Amino acid sequence: MAIDNDEFRAALSRFASGITVVTTKDAEGRLHGITVSAFCSVSLDPPLILICVEKTTGSHYAIEQSGIFVVNVLNASQSELSERFASTLPDKFDDIDFVRGINGIPVLADSLANLECRLKNTCDGGDHTIFVGEVERAMIRDGDPLVYFHGDYRVIVD
What's the mean per-residue pLDDT of the chain? Predict the structure, then answer.
């Protein structure tokens, strides 16, 4: 018998993860962004990362259309950004500080890292698509990460 959704979610909530916001734009130039915790490195040579994005989201279609996205690794003080980009607000970029990266994709200010990527591969992942991107540019800052564990944001203690 297969595991049910509630039990699966409860089990996965025991895995601490960093939080990213993935930004992109669609073919019409509209900006899109989504909070993503399913992110990891794939390869050093070439520099590849992967993200998993739910297929029903506007960001999913925008990544497919543009073939470009930015992974913004959030710092410990950016939980409001995580919440904003996890919401269904019509314009998530209102009053958000960002600059334009490759092909005009938003790069969020003050993140721990920004990875500007070109889409290399996709793979079906059930109700998500696994997007593999090649990192073309990276910006790095010092600070503590925003961490999510057991349904809440957490602080790393030294």
Answer: 95
Instruction: For 93-102, write each residue's pLDDT tens digit.
Output: 999 999 999 9
- Output the CATH code of domain 18-144: 2.30.110.10
Please give the backbone phi and psi of residue 19, each rounded to the nearest 5 degrees, phi first: -120, 135
β-pairing, 147-149 vs 17-18, is antiparallel
Q: Which are the contacts of 43, defined by CB distance < 8 A and separation ≥ 6?
A: none
- Which DSSP symbol is given to 63? H
- How far apart are alpha carbons 59 and 27 in whole angstroms? 12
| HEC assignment per residue over 76-140 | CCCHHHHHHHHCCCCCCCCCCCEEECHHHCEEECCCCEEEEEEEEEEEEECCEEEEEEEEEEEEE
